[in-house]
Design brief:
The complex is a heterodimer of chains A (503) and B (486). Chain A is mainly alpha-helical and 503 residues long. Chain A has 21 helices and 4 strands. Chain A has one domain. Chain A has a two-stranded antiparallel sheet with strand order 1-2. Chain A has a two-stranded antiparallel sheet with strand order 3-4. Chain B is mainly α and 486 residues long. Chain B contains 20 helices and 2 strands. A two-stranded antiparallel ribbon of chain B has the order 1-2. The longest helix of chain B has 32 residues. Classes of the chains: A mainly alpha (503), B mainly alpha (486).
Chain lengths: 503, 486
């Protein structure tokens, strides 16, 4: 019931925020703030819950909460929500970044603030739903629901080329989503042939003995939808456009949590539902991940648009996540989760900085910046921190994630590990060059810019603390997600031989 | 005729009687409000008259008419749409030219034709219903007779609809020549026994009939009239053509082809698949280049009928499917049509309301909708909902409709058709989102002058509410369909 409340609060909060605009132009953002704090309050007791065991295929899984209600009985579709450590972590990240997105847009939105906050809250609600839905139909439902408000955020409050960017974003995710829907239905009907009744229930569908050819195609439908969202090379092209044109708050949500739904889907659904089929595609997926890492980094280096640069760095970093998931060792899975959280924080912060720069300079073009540290020392120092974090400096969260992924993948596939490691070098190059071009050097113009104020610094410091904490003491996060990942790992077993053992 | 049979066709008798009464009232005391009130009463009473029929089904009334759950479901849909169209038409016509009362009589006549269509089990009643519907529609389309576009639309519809009726008649004649029967059910026993010349006659006959039906359903390659008629006809009439006319004809063709077994010929199924694929692609691709909302909706309806054909084909595939394929295909087409009805009514309801300002021409051009989001937010939200529903996005009933099309296709393993559905839906997003994007533009456009009328406003609001409700919680409608049809 807590889960239903959690999602409902966000949905209702969005509606209230929209209506509140009629009374006062400033009320919607306060309504949003209260909404997020309220849902965060609802989440606190979840951290101390004792897990209960639920059989999941051949393994047992640990769930903090499971809620089920009938929805469309004709097809065995139920309103099935469940939360384990992995979901809890992702939902916590969602709410935290929702708060960050709200803070980043606090004074930025003059046009229709009510509808803006409505879309913000509904995006959060949709994403939260995705992280807790365990009925495949319900999952798809939330998967699509989070798109529409995001489309509106980009299409209405976006920058100069918003029509193109929002359309591209919607098309990519929607079409790949339809492939997933087709897969889901074919899967459910194939399962009904095996078990005799319709069910979209995750627990009932895991571990079925499907025809391998069919399983491969079904897996592909899921894989495409999630890899487009991740985004994995070569399906990443919507991301730079969407990010560049989106308003700051939407960029924060997009990079921080929407991309993570793709990775979450791969971990929760693609591999566990079709382990053998996933094993067949694993090498290709890891290769795509590695190409994404290097390609994203090189493209980031070539950008003049600051937001585009950060967007391509996201492609690069999410490539590590893809590698980590398809290496499918406990170490790499934990690394992937860590990378998701750390990337969520660092990239959200970088987009917030990009947004702040655009708000002040009215340009995103790096070549028109330079020497900004002089005007805005606080922003410069903070940007330095996040640039360093993003390039993978030991002691911060991103390093832990990337290091664990590479270390685990080394046991599985050495060439891919070596290739992906190159991305770390290029990352250092483009990050530091960007820092240099924006904040260092001689000022290109005489500007009188306002530095970060208290609200912005406070938001940033929260994220900095988060990254440092993840970097020096990551164990609590691992403890949190470990039962979930272990049960999935038990279910499928290792997908690859250990390279060392094979020799 | 027994008492029970009399009760079974009571709705039709009642509606005919009320049309006569309405005609008399118009003749002696012409008053638009009275006429509309009589229309609404007639539609509601006819709907209520179906309730006692429910306990009798299935019941055969003369060889011409059969009342079963299928007929009742589609009759309900038709009456619902006719009511919504009546409300919209009242707003549309109340401030225009002087004599508008006859329009509402024609609307009731067309509705009666559609009601007869969905319960006919014989070629004679099929033609009767078809012509009653068609002839009333010619006049309805050309009702505001001063517009050039309107006349063009009416003429096109008259000629093409006439030609397609001839196709159907000739096809029926060919089938009669070989089988000696005009009832659908009798055909089933004869059809399978035929071979050689007989089979040729049957195939040619059903191909001709289907050609005629394709005209009426605006399936590619017989879709050319659709955009012109949609654009030229008054918006409420377009809504009627798009829902009642197409829905009734689809319902009867599904009944005709499945109950007579004509569909089970493999050449017919191949032909249908090609038509479905062409309609989905052509409808969606041609809509891309349009700047007129009514034309976009016309092409989108071509595509939607293409999606619907997937369920039609699934209904014809006996045996090849997985669990309960055939029942599911009927259920799927019924739900999809339900979704399509309310979505289309919602869309044309909004177009009607936006068109009220200008008596010369309906608000077709996309620029008429710019800034609607900020000046008339409720109207814009309703339109956004209908467009999202047409695009098949969750939270709206259109998504459940598309979900059903997918299930029907998956159970019968129609992979190629389903991939076309995906491609079509992808292309479709372009032009739906274009309209939504136009509505979110920041302009001081003249949309702020739009006033939302009471009758049409209530109709559109109710439709939008239904669109959300049955998109999120479709179980009641699914149960209803299962009770009536399965």
């Amino acid at each position: 019931m807590q889960l239903v409340a959690l999602i409902s609060v966000l949905f209702i909060g969005g509606l209230v925020a929209w209506l509140a605009e009629r009374r006062n132009h400033d009320w919607p953002k306060w309504v949003s703030l209260i909404t997020i704090l309220l849902s965060a309050l609802l989440m606190i007791p979840l951290f101390s819950l004792e897990p209960t065991s639920v059989p999941l295929g051949a393994a047992t899984s640990q769930w903090l909460l499971v809620y089920e209600a009938p929805w469309i009985p004709r097809f065995g579709i139920s309103f099935l929500l469940g939360m384990d450590g992995l979901s809890l972590l992702m939902v916590a990240l969602t709410l935290f970044l929702g708060l960050v997105a709200l803070a980043s847009s606090w004074n930025e939105i003059d046009h229709q603030p009510g509808f803006f906050q409505f879309n913000l809250m509904w995006t959060l609600a949709g994403v939260t739903g995705v992280f807790v839905a365990l009925d495949l139909f319900l999952f798809f439902f939330f998967w699509e629901v989070m798109l529409i408000p995001m489309y509106f955020l980009i299409a209405i409050w976006g920058h100069e080329n918003k029509a193109y960017a929002s359309m591209k974003f919607f098309l990519f995710t929607q079409i790949s989503g339809l492939f997933m829907l087709l897969s889901i239905l074919a899967f459910v009907f194939a399962a009904a042939d095996l078990t005799g009744n319709f069910t979209f229930n995750y627990f009932d569908l895991v571990g079925l003995n499907l025809d391998p050819d069919l399983a491969w195609w079904l897996m592909l439908g899921f894989f495409v939808a999630f890899v487009v969202k991740l985004p994995g090379f070569p399906f990443h092209t919507w991301l730079p456009d969407a990010h560049t044109q989106a308003p700051t708050a939407a960029s924060v949500l997009l990079a921080g949590i929407l991309l993570k739904t793709g990775a979450y889907g791969l971990i929760r659904f693609t591999v566990p539902l079709f382990p053998e089929a996933a094993m067949e595609i694993a090498q290709v997926a890891m290769l795509l991940g590695a190409i994404g890492v290097v390609y994203g980094a090189i493209m980031a280096f070539a950008q003049d648009d600051f937001k585009r640069l950060v967007a391509y760095s996201s492609v690069s970093h999410m490539g590590f996540v893809l590698i980590g998931i398809f290496a499918w060792r406990e170490l790499t899975l934990q690394g992937s989760v860590m990378q998701m959280v750390a990337h969520g924080l660092s990239t959200a912060a970088l987009f917030m900085i990009a947004g702040a720069l655009q708000h002040r300079l009215h340009t995103r073009d790096v070549s028109e910046m330079g020497g900004l540290w002089k005007d805005m020392p606080r922003m410069g120092a903070i940007a330095m921190f996040f640039i360093i974090a993003s390039l993978g400096m030991p002691g911060l969260g991103n390093f832990v994630g990337e290091f664990m992924i590479l270390m685990g993948t080394f046991q599985v596939n050495v060439p891919i590990t070596v290739f992906a490691s190159l991305g770390l070098i290029v990352a250092a190059v483009y990050s530091l060059v960007a820092m240099q071009r924006v904040f260092q050097g001689a000022p290109t113009a005489d500007r009188n810019l306002q530095d970060f104020d208290l609200r912005e610094v406070a938001t940033m410091v929260l994220m900095m603390l988060g990254l440092v904490y993840l970097g020096v003491h990551p164990q609590p996060v691992f403890d949190m997600v470990e039962p979930a990942l272990t049960s999935l790992y038990q279910l499928t077993g290792p997908m690859h031989e250990w390279v060392g053992a094979a020799r | 005729m027994s008492d029970q049979q009399l009760v079974a066709i009571l709705p039709h008798i009642l509606l005919s009687a009320l049309i006569l009464i309405q005609m008399m009232v118009i003749a002696f005391a012409r008053n638009l409000v009275t006429t509309v009130v009589i229309s609404i009463i007639a539609l509601v009473l006819t709907g209520l008259a179906f309730i006692p029929v429910h306990s009798l089904i299935p019941i055969v009334v003369t060889p011409l008419i059969v009342l079963d759950g299928y007929a009742i479901f589609y009759s309900g849909l038709i009456l619902m749409s006719a009511t919504a169209v009546t409300l919209m038409a009242y707003d549309y016509f109340k401030d225009r030219e002087e004599r508008q009362d006859e329009f509402f009589m024609l609307l009731l006549l067309a509705t009666l034709g559609a009601l007869i269509l969905v319960c006919s089990s014989h070629f004679a009643s099929l033609i009767l219903g078809l012509e009653l519907l068609g002839v009333s529609l010619y006049t309805m389309i050309s009702y505001p007779r001063k517009g050039l576009l309107t006349l063009e639309a009416a003429l096109k519809y008259l000629i093409l609809s006439g030609v397609s009726s001839t196709f159907i008649l000739f096809g029926a004649a060919l089938i009669y020549a070989i089988s000696g029967s005009l009832g659908f059910a009798e055909l089933a026993t004869i059809g399978s026994a035929e071979n050689g010349t007989g089979e040729l006659f049957l195939t040619a006959g059903s191909a001709l009939i289907f050609g005629g039906i394709m005209f009426k359903l605006s399936l590619t390659p017989f879709h050319m009239w659709t955009p012109d008629v949609y654009e030229g006809a008054p918006a409420p009439v377009t809504a009627f053509v798009a829902t009642v006319s197409k829905g009734a004809i689809f319902a009867i063709s599904l009944r005709l082809f499945t109950s007579s077994g004509l569909i089970e010929t493999s050449s017919i199924l191949t032909g249908l698949s090609i038509v479905a694929i062409l309609s989905m692609l052509a409808g969606n691709l041609l809509a891309l280049k349009q700047d007129n909302v009514k034309r976009i909706l016309a092409y989108s309806s071509i595509a939607h009928l293409g999606y619907l054909m997937v369920a039609f084909i699934a209904a014809g595939m006996v045996g090849g499917g997985m669990v309960g394929g055939k029942v599911l295909a009927f259920e799927a087409s019924s739900y999809f049509l339900f979704a399509y009805f309310i979505t289309t009514l919602g869309a044309f309801g909004v177009v009607t309301i936006v068109s009220l300002r200008d008596h010369e021409k309906d608000a077709g051009d996309i620029s008429n909708y710019e800034g609607l989001f900020w000046h008339r937010p409720l109207l814009a939200i309703m339109f956004t909902l209908t467009l999202l529903s047409l695009a098949g996005i969750p939270l709206t009933v259109g998504f459940i409709g598309k979900f059903y099309i997918f299930t029907a296709g998956v159970t019968t393993t129609l992979w190629l058709l389903l991939l076309t559905v995906i491609a079509g839906s992808g292309i479709g997003l372009f032009y739906y989102l274009r309209i939504i994007f136009a509505m979110t533009k920041r302009t001081d456009a003249s949309v702020s002058e739009i006033e939302i009328p009471l009758a049409g406003g209530c109709a559109v609001a109710a439709i939008s509410a239904a669109m959300l409700l049955f998109g999120i919680y479709p179980a009641p409608v699914i149960n209803l369909i299962n009770n009536l049809i399965a």
